[in-house]
Amino acid sequence: MSFSSRQLLLRVVAALMVACATGFTAEPAVADKIDKLDGAGVIEFFGTIHLQEGNHPIIDLGDAHGLHEANEVAIFRAEDMHFRPLGSCRIEESFATHSVPEVPAGIELRDGDRVVYVKTLSQMGTGGAFRESFLRQQLIKTAERNSYSTFRQQDEADSLQNYVSRQPRWVRDRKHFAGRMRSPSVTVQAADDMRPVLSQVQLLQHYQSLGVSIDRNIGPNWLTVMNALKPTPDVVFGEPRMTNATTKEASAKTSAATQPPEPIDVIERRAERMRREAENILFTRSAEERNLAVIVLAALYVEKPGNERQWIVDQVRVSQFPSLAVNDQFIEDLLKILKRVRTNEQG
Known about the structure:
This protein is of the alpha+beta class. The chain has helices at 3-21, 27-34, 121-124, 127-140, 142-145, 153-173, 188-193, 195-209, 214-218, 220-228, 247-254, 264-281, 287-303, 308-317, 328-345, and strands spanning 42-52, 56-59, 72-79, 82-94, 99-102, 114-120, 177-182. It is elongated and about 70 Å long. 36% of the residues are buried.
């Protein structure tokens, strides 16, 4: 074996060792690179809607998961390989391992709808303090604890232990996104499936911080889930967790944030025009794919990037439709919508 061959073999072996250490997946490495070490400690909670007798919905998350009365949760529905936001619900009653949502008018919940909410490590407290607080709450709610026989006390113990055992490591890691907790009905894969849509929520939060109107462009449901998934107190999200590392630098160079905001009527007319063009040009796409096109183009007007095509690709890549970032036809269609809207505005 020649020296160059031995060198190549050593490099391959080293690469395999790194792959073994990371579980043969690039995702953790990307997340670690992008996720800020700012100690925000955001925890994502995943649960499911269950319809009881009479179609009364309950959520399989409760006091043992830090979910209490008056907390707000986001609701999503899985549709054709993506998620549609239904809005948010306020918790009316919370029990040990489940809660009862106060469903707003216009929302019809179904069995299996996904529930997501976020809290920070500072809100949850240390493992010991959280457990003591929970036990004190349950002394008051003893009569309610076994209201639903389908929820076992073992779930309560498991949920508490999950947080108690993970909290010290989450604090030490000082990550922006500390980790996640799931109800028994949510598998690891089911939680993983929601990563793209939660990345899109983060993208919308970033757009809102730039002054882009979520409600005017893609409707109130996205606005309510986006607001429900903002930790309290507010933490700075910045760029989406899975975004390309160069996006922030490129955006900073090309942003025209110093320019005065446009009149509301101009923004509203443009949003309406974009929606019409998206419906005409993207008529074969799903409603959520069209929503993505509209909000990305609305943000482009604010960011004013130098390379518009590449900027659009970067935004789509961190949406819930990342495969569309390499779909040339979709990108061309967005540029076509942009051209038509600009032509219309120029008269």
